[in-house]
Design brief:
alpha/beta, TIM Barrel
Length: 270
């Protein structure tokens, strides 16, 4: 009797999950406290939110082809959607110790993403999840496989009216989901980075409300205030005077903060 073929995480190959990707590429982390760290990125397709400043609009839908790039070179290989999760670790480029699962939003494909994270951890890699934190239950399935959670706290003025959670009533639901995600990450002892993107149109009231909501969790997270990089429908930079006002308010609330732009954009990278 022959044994069924198994994958590196112990799953039979036939049970490996399929998922929709946009691209796989090697670069440096461009945002937050890990900015500048060489990282392997796996970009997942699909996102229910629509942000005015979105710089990955192409990730809303799944493409037919998934390019694989090491740095800025032409694609070294091309996959076709849907992609088996077991194929992704085989494509780890170079000696980078970090994997960033980004999007789109990985929470839309939790089982597929969980298998990818598990496989990378079995290779001794550190794992980072970048998400809009809209689904605490999906996040809960991924937390055992994460070293760091990097999540957004979305402000109402930065959301477009035709995406999920864009109405005033549903925004409270989104913010509640944000806070549950923070709480679950802290309970799981996963490093928690909360990023607030600040645009010229955000109001002092909505920013201060975000600080009040996050205040009970301040000792378990690092708060990143990110001045917007003009993209998509957001064409204006944030005035430095407003930025200073916001970071002083964050410090008044007792947060450990970082004020950081997107460094990859500063260097002219996508």
């Amino acid at each position: 009797m022959s044994l069924a073929q198994t994958t590196s995480s112990g799953l039979p190959s036939s049970q490996a999950h399929l998922g929709e990707l946009v691209e796989i590429f090697a670069s440096v982390q461009g945002e937050g406290p890990l900015a500048g760290v060489p990282t392997q990125f796996v970009r997942v397709a699909g996102c229910p939110l629509r942000c005015r400043y979105c710089d990955t609009v192409s990730s809303y839908r799944s493409p037919r082809e998934v390019p694989i790039r090491d740095g800025f070179a032409r694609p070294t290989e091309t996959l076709f959607n849907p992609v088996p999760a077991e194929r992704v670790p085989d494509l780890f480029l170079g000696k980078r110790s970090w994997l960033a699962l980004t999007g789109g939003d990985p929470l839309g494909q939790p089982q597929f993403c969980r298998e990818i994270l598990d496989r990378f951890q079995s290779l001794g890699k550190k794992t980072l999840l970048e998400t809009a934190a809209y689904d605490p239950l999906a996040l809960e399935t991924l937390l055992p496989h994460l070293d760091v959670l990097s999540m957004d706290y979305k402000l109402v003025s930065t959301l477009l009216p035709y995406g999920a959670y864009s109405s005033p009533g549903s925004l409270g639901e989104l913010h509640s989901s944000h806070l549950r995600c923070v709480e679950k990450a802290i309970q799981a002892k996963v490093g928690c980075i909360v990023k607030i993107v600040l645009t010229q149109t955000v109001t002092q009231e909505e920013v201060e409300q975000a600080f009040r909501n996050l205040h009970p969790f301040r000792e378990g997270l690092t708060l990143v205030l990110q001045p917007v990089t003009p993209a998509h429908l957001e064409r204006n930079k944030l005035d430095q005077i407003f930025l200073k006002q916001f970071w002083w308010k964050a410090m008044d609330h007792g947060f450990e903060i970082r004020v950081l732009p997107q460094i990859h954009k500063q260097m002219g990278w996508d």
